[in-house]
Design brief:
By secondary structure, this protein is mainly α. It is built from four helices and no strands. Helix 1 packs antiparallel against helix 2, helix 2 packs across helix 3 and helix 3 runs antiparallel to helix 4. The chain starts with a helix and ends with a helix.
C-alpha cells in the first residue's frame, strides 16, 4: 500500500468518524466523544491542520494528554499487529 493510499484511507476514515461523532453528540446510542477522538487521531495522521489541533488540545488539557497518548499508542500497536497479520496471510494465499 502506497503512502498516498494510506493518507486517503486515513482521511476518509477520519471524516467518517467525525461525522459519527457529531451524530453521537445528539443520539444517545452513539459514543460521540469517542468517535470524535478517533476521527481526530486518523485525520492528524493525514493532515497537518488536524495534527496542529491535536497538539493544541494536548497543551490545553494536559491532564488528559497522557491518557490520550497511551490510547493512541495502544491503538497503533493493535492496528499494526492485526492489520499486518491480515496482509501477510493474504499474500501467502495468493
Amino acid at each position: 500500500m502506497t503512502l498516498a493510499w494510506k493518507r486517503k484511507l486515513f482521511m476518509v476514515g477520519g471524516w467518517v468518524f467525525l461525522v459519527l461523532g457529531v451524530l453521537g453528540l445528539f443520539l444517545p446510542f452513539l459514543q460521540g466523544i469517542l468517535f470524535l477522538l478517533v476521527g481526530l487521531i486518523l485525520l492528524a495522521k493525514a493532515q497537518p491542520r488536524f495534527r496542529l489541533l491535536k497538539m493544541r488540545l494536548k497543551k490545553r488539557y494536559p491532564k488528559y494528554a497522557a491518557a490520550f497518548e497511551a490510547a493512541e499508542e495502544r491503538a497503533a500497536r493493535f492496528g499494526q499487529g492485526k492489520f499486518n497479520n491480515f496482509l501477510k496471510n493474504r499474500k501467502k494465499k495468493n
